Amino acid sequence: MRSYAEKLIRSGTMEGPDGAVIPINSQISLSEGIFLEKIIRDIRPGVSVEVGVAFGVSSLFICGALKETGGTRHIAIDLGPIRKKENNELDRFGLGIHNLERCGYGSLLEVWESPSELALPDLLRRGQRVQFAFIDGWHSFDHTLVDFFYVNKMLDVGGVVAFHDAVHPNVRKVIRHVMTYPSYRLYGASEVEKPVFGTARKGLEKAVAYLLFVIRRLQPRRPNCVALMKIGEDERPWQWFADF
Length: 244
What we know:
Low-confidence stretches: none
Strand order of the largest sheet: 5-4-3-6-7-9-8
CATH topology: Rossmann fold
CATH architecture: 3-Layer(aba) Sandwich
CATH class: Alpha Beta
Strand content: 15-25%
Distance between the termini: 39 Å
């Protein structure tokens, strides 16, 4: 339900189960959500997997497009917790699940409250296959690479893996590494968003803020969501190496 996802992005808040207004963070932008929808509509996956759900904004775009194209399951992996230990209230991941269920996507969900480096190998061990993956978990180089390592083993040929926060140097380096694989090619990237000026400052502080805004606006900007398509089986020999 894109309208609800757009509302969350615009307001930066959500309504909890008890009606309380809760500030949210870690959400994707509208253009990134539209990009994820485009991928789903293009490749029409049956099963998708997402690492790093948080408040579920990206999941809303993915599940909405899955439901539209006949997809059957979205595997949602997040460290959690779903509920806070001290009062049993929904924590960030739990609120994300709540958002998805509120929009009617509960039947699509398979929820894993687990570190991705444990959940993904368990999925692989049971023989899970996926056709779309969205990696937006822990952004260290090793964690991002481990997430991709297992996704690659589960992703069908013709499937797509998308990386969020591709401007982060660690994530960008993983993408560069994967682009050296013979079995992957660039699928596409989200629209590059220009910064928008807005401040409550006045006088000299406002002038300085505007100057910094202009400088940022003129700087080259990279897309924050990059997707790669798997175009063949991963048949690299054991001694394969390509510099990146």
